[in-house]
Each structure stands twice: as structure tokens, then as C-alpha cells.
Write a structure and sequence with these properties.
By secondary structure, the chain is of the alpha+beta class. It contains four helices and four strands; from the N terminus they run ααββαββα. Strands 1-2-4-3 form a four-stranded antiparallel β-sheet, with helices on one face. Helix 3 runs antiparallel to helix 4. The radius of gyration is 14 Å and the shape is globular. The mean pLDDT is 93.
């Protein structure tokens, strides 16, 4: 992969019995494409997390709704915490109990949604 936008252009895949969590090497290869995200260990599972700032609650809620629409289209769903002026997004894959390529794709798509928001 040569550009971060390539991740955002990909589609999340389904899972099979062979699906596994990414190795540390695989995570390290993709992390530069979503470097605004943190890797956090919540509930002993690694997750991609990023907090997005907004001017008010309405903008935060609109962003969360757009992320939710994308998540439904991709059949891959995050944890969303909507607060006044802030949305925290966490991606991880329950099925593999860790990080999967889908999490990086969804994080890149989330970044794109944030970058394309309407300024106000």
C-alpha cells in the first residue's frame, strides 16, 4: 500500500473460521496510514481509538451519524462516544479478538469523513 487513501477506498471483508487478529508486524505496517489514531488496550484487546473535536454537540452528532452510516454499509461497527464538541471512535474486531484489516480500513474511512465535513 503506497498511500493512506488506498485504505479508505477498500471495503471491509467478511470473516471466516480462518480469520485471525493481526500480528504486531502487520499492525506496524498499517499504522502509519492511520497515525492520528492511538492503539489502546481496552478489555485486554487492542483497539484503534481517536477523538475528533467539533464546535458543538450538533456537529459531533452529525459526524457520529455519518460514521454510523459508513459502518452499516461496511458491516463493521465501532464504539462511538458522543459528547459536547467531541466524538471518540474505537475500532476493533470481536470475531478475531483484536485488530483486523477491517479496523484499519474503517479508521481510514472515518478520517475521510472527518476531512470532508462541512466547515461552519
Amino acid at each position: 500500500m503506497s498511500e493512506p487513501t488506498q485504505l479508505a477506498d477498500m471495503t471491509c471483508s467478511g470473516y471466516s473460521a480462518d480469520s485471525k487478529a493481526m500480528t504486531a508486524v502487520e499492525v506496524a505496517e498499517l499504522y502509519p496510514f492511520v497515525s492520528d489514531w492511538r492503539i489502546v488496550d481496552g478489555d485486554e484487546l487492542p483497539k484503534l481509538e481517536r477523538a475528533f473535536k467539533f464546535k458543538n454537540f450538533v456537529q459531533a452528532l452529525e459526524f457520529a451519524n455519518r460514521v454510523g452510516t459508513m459502518a452499516e454499509e461496511q458491516d463493521h461497527h465501532p464504539a462511538l462516544l458522543v459528547e459536547w464538541g467531541k466524538v471518540t471512535v474505537r475500532w476493533w474486531t470481536h470475531f478475531v479478538e483484536g485488530l483486523h484489516l477491517n479496523d484499519f480500513i474503517a479508521a481510514a474511512k472515518t478520517d475521510r469523513i472527518f476531512e470532508q465535513r462541512q466547515p461552519s
